[in-house]
Amino acid sequence: MAITTQVRPQRWDQPFGLFMTDQDVERLLAIPEISAIEESKFPSHCPLRGILKNDARIVKYTAGDIVIREGDYGNSAFLVLDGSLKVVLFPGLPGEMLGRRAVRKKNLWQVLKQLWNQRKVPEVRDVKRYGLQALVRDADDLGAAHVFLQDIPAILDKNKTASLGRGALFGELAALGRTPRTSTIFAETDAELLEIRWQGLREFRKYDQGWRRLFDKRYRSNALNAHLRATSIFAHLDDEDLQEVADATHFENYGKYDWHLTYKKLRTEDKTHGMKDEPVIAHQGDYSDGILMVRAGFARISVDRGNGQQTLTYLGTGDFYGADELYRAWQGELNVSLRVTITALGYAEMLRVPSKIVEKHLFPYWSSGKKRERKNISESSIALRRLQDFIDQPLTDGALMEWAVEERFINGTQAMLINLDRCVRCDDCVRACAATHDGNPRFIRHGKTFENWMVANACMHCADPVCMIGCPTGAIHRTMSGGIVVINDDTCIGCETCANSCPYSNIRMVSIRDEVGSFITDPQNQKPILKATKCDLCADQISGPACVFACPHDAMRRVDFKEAGLDENKSGF
Amino acid sequence: MRINQGFSLVHVWGVLSRIPKTRNPWGYLGFAALLFLVIWVWTIQIDRSLGISAFASGWILFGILAFLSLFSARKRLPFLPLASSSRWFHLHAVGGFLALFLFWLHTGGMWSQGLYGQILTALFYITSISGVGGLVIEKIYPRQLTYSGIEIIYERIPGEIAEIREEVESLILKCTEETGSSTLAEHYLETLSWYFQRPRFFMNNIFGSHLSQHWVRQQCMILERFLDKNERKYLDGIYVLAEKKRKIDFHYALQTLLKTWLLVHIPLAAAVMAMVFWHLILIQVFFV
User: Fold this and answer.
1) Among A434, A536, A529, A437, which Cα is nearest to A477's?
2) In terms of CA atoms, which chain B residue is nearest residue A112?
3) Can you tell me the distance from the alpha carbon of B54 to that of A485, in angstroms, rounded to the nearest whole number?
4) Do residue A254 and residue A355 come from a single domain?
5) Same domain, yes or no, for A528 and A482?
6) Domain tally for chain A?
7) By mean pLDDT, which of A302-311, A336-345, A559-568 is the weakest?
8) What's this model's pTM, rounded to 2 decimal places?
9) Least confidently predicted of A1-15, A407-421, B32-46
10) Is A201 in the same domain as A328?
């Protein structure tokens, strides 16, 4: 029998920039920001030249091109090689200018108009509406289309802006922290930028002191204080004390940023296998050396049970763990060790606030007659339930959470959960969705099941929306109010990046039709024009999600697993 | 339209939509009985004050029947802010039982006089029975479907069965090629092909019988003694697929009933409404 062989896949089989040459690398090594990096510090399996050639690319922008948009998610940072960029500071560009869709609730008349505006064929579009596509510049050599701004002088007049010139680095915090971009940056003149994907940034941070210091300094000055301030346990500190906490906090990264790429493969593997591969952040039985806070991503909380690990719950952005153990040890209790194991789910970016700092700034506050407050605060880190309750619960009680964590449904903030014991499979939900969305439902009433629960294939409006990474026009975005992930049909170019990125296959590409029902085609190749579609949570409907509204048996709910009360008897669901 | 004491239809709807929802059919029945008692007492008072209570009960019954028929329209207009479908369903179930009680009160018995009245009564009863039947199966079947261990979209069932049939036939071909024996193939042509052709055991599945399970097992057992070790390996594969098909058949039967009972209920309800409307015109023309 013939044996199929294949060269073992290597890290850089798929370089970031297809056209990066050795000459480009040499050129980059000559610029001050890169030449300052000590090449010798990089290991042989991950040389600096390799990173520049494979994890970076040179991108050219024409004056007016948007480089990054406020609110977008991205996995790369930029270094200006040539030209000048503008950062829009205040009041910011309107959503329409950035290729966004303003989501407004329909008024009663517009709701009624839906009665007679229903089409006989699905996905009919008014092509005249696609005027905004004129703002999309054709794909360049790298396959990326750029949205550009018109009338730059007017934008400069109306907005407070800052300039970025040669040598400026930006976008690294959002890329490494998987947080939205905080500003819009566009090319003021023709510009050349070095775009470095997160893998390269991670290596720079890991092997080069200068870049690490730069990243950490920027994070401390731009985001850490605000993050700590938003955390309940440090809310009482004044600015000076908070700065001390911030200065002492360590940053730690676990897992892979692009967890979604391996997620589908992971699902087919042995159930315990995935967990064994998860990077351990803290191990049950170890002594705690600080409070662990999640800056981005998710972490699994589990305990040893039999020959395996039982998942109790999970931590998301803003959650923390370890304060109780430290406090008990500080009060004099002996041999206080961690009661749980914490592992990164996909990836997790953690902040570790050292115990000495916690003992100085937090515990005296807790012990000064604020015990009740302490109790509330420390428990809030795990969804208002005492850890001991989770540990004591029978296996069956925590099975649903275990499943939700295993399947990464915890990423969803609006997962479509169906109680199959109630669902009569009437598809009223599907019809309601179709009636409110161009005659085509935006979800499939099918999905993974556990006991009597099904998570249907509907957009979950994830906390970590990997679908938004890489959208060339910013068509898929979060609404400013409510944080719902929506797609602007007008600026979607049908590249399928979002659909391919969604780990849950909840974005579907559809062929659009004109007013008479014929498919709209590209005149160049006669192929149908595609648009990405997904659940938008009926953001424009006054009655909320039509699917939930249309279910006669209350069998469907949109849930965040951490907050979901799924006990049928207690919650009525 | 305003009813005395300052209530409007909006207020009535407001009150109705605040009624706690129950999922227990006995709850619907109990709530309907309570409302009926109030109306019954009221009609007794009308009779005592020498009024004609049949007019009052008739108009209320007509109003309730009209409200019941609106549920179907509401389902087709999911974008209108007309309260959630589950609220409508709850009120529809309560209203259905109430209509039944009021029908008896209005007609003064279980059956009517005259051909027209008897046709109307028969249609009303069939509609009511189909409604109660629908309510019962909607309560029982979802759990049974869940416990079957698979979940399948109704429209995909024919495709799934065709896929299973192809798999079975390719297994049989492979078995014949590999072992040179046609026993399994012959048995397939004689018996099993019937089973894999389309959904089977419809009525048995509807009534929760295990006949299909028994049949599949029996067919495999009958054959087992005529097969050698290699052929049995293929038979095991076919048995697994037959079991999968059995579960799909079960879904097909139950989901068919869950989807089609409304095809009886809604047209009959429309016929009842039409006859009630004509009845109302006749009453207004000849008796008022």
Assistant:
1) A536
2) B80
3) 58
4) yes
5) yes
6) 3
7) A559-568
8) 0.83
9) A1-15
10) no
